[in-house]
Design a protein that fits this description.
Length: 482
C-alpha cells in the first residue's frame, strides 16, 4: 500500500482505537489498527545527503507525521511493508494558485489554502522535470555536474508499482541517451578487443587447446583450428555494452512513449541519431569484461554512460521483456530536485552567455559551503543562489537573504573576483541574485533567453526593497497538463 504526497507536504499516520483501516491520499491521512501501527515503530528521518533529507518524521503518542522535503522518489517506510511516493510539488495549476500566504513558515499549508481558492483552473499533473534534465544533459559543461543527482538503493527490496508511476526509468534513460548522443557526435571509440573464432586451415593469434579439442578434434574436423586473436576496431566491449543498453532503452521508449510527456519527440530524434552508428556493433558482452576499461580523456562520456547503462540493465533485471511490463518492480530511489533546479539555471546561464563559461563558476567552494553560481565579469560580478522555493513570488525568506549576503562578504569570494578582474571594485557591496520558480510571471527561458545574459540580470525592478544590492528573478518551468 503506497502513500502519495508532493514535496514539502505532510502526511499523517494515526492509530485506530476502533473501526476499519483506511488510506486517503487526497486527505493525506492513513489510519491503522494497533498491530499495523506497531510495525512503524522506529521509522526515522531519511537522509539524502549531509545537507538535506528525503523526508522527516515527527513522532507522537498515537501518530506519525511524515513531511516530504525537496526530493522526489520512492522508498519503504521502515519495516511496515508500506512505501512512500513523493512527487514534484509544482503541480497545482497554470499559475493562479501560486498566490501564497507569505507569512506561513510551512509551504504545505500555503498549497492547501491556494487549492481552496480556485478549483476551476486547468490542473497540471506535475512538473516536467524530465524536460529540465534533457536541457541539463544536452549541454556538456552542465552534464558533467549531474553526479549525485540520484540515489538508488539497489540492496533494498524492490517496490511493485504501476509503470506509469515510475519516475526512475525515464530519468535514467534521458541521462543515458544524452551521453550516448555526445559519444556518437565524436565517433565511437576504437580499441583492441579479443575474438574467438573457429578458423579453417589457418592459425591466427593463439590456439585455445581445450576449445579446439572439444569443437574440432572430437568431431573429426581436422582442418579447423579454434583461435583467439586481437582486432582493432569499434566492435569492442565498451561499444557492445552501450549497444546492449541502447536496445533496452529503445524497447522501453517504444512501449512507453507517453511517460516522456512533451519530451517523447526529442527522445525519438536522439534514438534515430544514434542508431546508425550501432548497426554494425554487437550486443554480446559480459559485465566482467568492462572492469578493466581504461578511460580516455577524449572519450570521457564513456565512463558515465556505461555506469548509467548498468543501472538501466539492472533496473530491468537484464530481461528485455520487462521493458514492456505495465507493472514493475523498482528499487527505492530519490532525485534531488533543488540540485536539478540549480543545474537547470546553470545550463541556461551557459547557453545565454556562450563563450563566457570561464566567467560562470558553478558550486564555488567557500569554507565548507558552496555557493550555487559565481559570476566573474568586472562590474557585472555577482553571487547567484538558485532556490527551489515558491515563497519568492511576492515575498522573501529572510534566512536565504542572510545566507546569500554572507556568501557575498566572504574574503575567498572577493579575492576570487578581484583576481584578473580589473573592473571589479572590491570595497563595493557585491550584488546578490536569488533565482526561483515563478510559473505564471517568470521569464520563459525558451523564448527570452537573452534575459539571462550576465549584463541583463540585475535591474532596478528586481531589487528586494528591504536589502541593499539583493535582487530576485523568477523563471518559468515546464508543466505537464491534463
Amino acid at each position: 500500500m503506497g502513500i502519495k504526497l508532493s514535496e514539502h507536504k505532510k502526511f499523517k499516520i494515526s492509530k485506530l482505537t476502533d473501526g476499519v483501516e483506511f488510506l486517503d491520499n487526497k486527505a493525506l491521512h492513513l489510519q491503522l489498527n494497533a498491530d499495523s501501527f506497531a510495525l512503524l515503530d522506529g521509522i526515522t528521518n531519511k537522509a539524502f545527503n549531509d545537507n538535506s533529507n528525503c523526508y522527516t518524521v515527527e513522532n507522537g503518542t498515537d501518530f506519525y507525521q511524515i513531511k516530504a522535503d525537496y526530493c522526489i522518489g520512492l522508498d519503504w517506510l521502515g519495516n511496515s511493508g508500506r512505501y512512500i511516493q513523493v512527487e514534484p510539488k509544482i503541480n497545482i495549476t497554470n499559475g493562479e494558485n501560486f498566490e501564497f500566504c507569505l507569512n506561513e513558515d510551512d509551504e504545505s499549508e500555503s498549497f492547501d489554502k491556494a487549492l481552496r481558492k480556485d478549483n476551476s483552473a486547468e490542473i497540471s499533473i506535475g512538473l516536467d522535470y524530465l524536460k529540465m534534465l534533457m536541457d541539463v544533459m544536452a549541454f556538456p559543461v552542465s552534464a558533467k555536474e549531474v553526479k549525485g543527482l540520484v540515489n538508488i538503493d539497489w540492496n533494498a527490496s524492490k517496490i511493485n508499482i504501476d509503470s506509469r508511476d515510475d519516475k526512475l526509468t525515464p530519468f535514467l534513460i534521458i541521462q543515458f541517451l544524452q551521453l550516448l548522443k555526445a559519444i556518437v557526435k565524436k565517433g565511437l571509440k576504437k580499441s583492441y578487443y579479443k575474438i574467438q573464432e573457429n578458423l579453417r586451415s589457418k592459425i591466427k593469434g593463439k590456439i585455445l587447446i581445450g576449445q579446439h579439442i572439444k569443437k574440432n578434434v572430437l568431431k573429426n574436423r581436422f582442418t579447423n583450428i579454434f583461435c583467439e586473436y586481437q582486432v582493432f576496431g569499434e566492435d569492442n566491449y565498451e561499444n557492445r555494452f552501450l549497444n546492449k543498453a541502447f536496445v533496452f532503452v529503445c524497447s522501453y521508449v517504444n512501449n512507453h512513449k507517453a511517460y516522456f510527456f512533451s519530451n517523447a519527440f526529442d527522445i525519438e530524434q536522439i534514438i534515430d541519431y544514434c542508431r546508425p552508428l550501432f548497426e554494425h556493433i554487437g550486443t554480446s558482452v559480459e559485465l566482467h569484461q568492462l572492469k578493466n576499461i581504461k578511460t580516455n580523456p577524449f572519450f570521457k562520456e564513456y565512463k558515465a554512460c556505461i555506469k548509467i547503462g548498468e543501472q538501466i540493465l539492472k533496473r530491468f533485471a537484464y530481461n528485455i521483456s520487462q521493458t514492456a511490463d505495465q507493472k514493475i518492480a523498482t528499487p527505492p530511489f530519490w532525485i534531488d530536485m533543488p540540485r536539478l533546479f540549480e543545474l537547470y539555471i546553470y545550463e541556461k546561464m551557459l547557453k545565454a552567455n556562450e563563450g563566457s563559461a570561464s566567467k560562470i563558476k558553478y558550486q564555488f567552494s567557500t569554507y565548507g559551503n558552496a555557493l550555487d553560481i559565481l559570476i566573474k565579469q568586472g562590474k557585472h560580478s555577482l553571487v547567484i543562489d538558485a532556490k527551489y522555493k515558491l515563497h519568492y513570488k511576492h515575498g522573501e525568506v529572510h534566512a536565504d537573504m542572510r545566507q546569500v549576503a554572507g556568501y557575498a562578504r566572504l574574503n575567498k569570494v572577493l579575492n576570487e573576483l578581484a583576481y584578473n578582474n580589473e573592473d571589479f571594485v572590491k570595497d563595493a557591496v557585491l550584488p546578490c541574485l536569488i533565482i526561483y520558480p515563478d510559473i505564471k510571471n517568470g521569464i520563459d527561458l525558451g523564448e527570452d533567453l537573452p534575459a539571462f545574459k550576465i549584463e541583463n540580470l540585475i535591474t532596478p525592478y528586481r531589487r528586494v526593497k528591504a536589502y541593499s544590492e539583493i535582487y530576485k528573478l523568477g523563471v518559468k518551468l515546464s508543466l505537464i497538463y491534463e
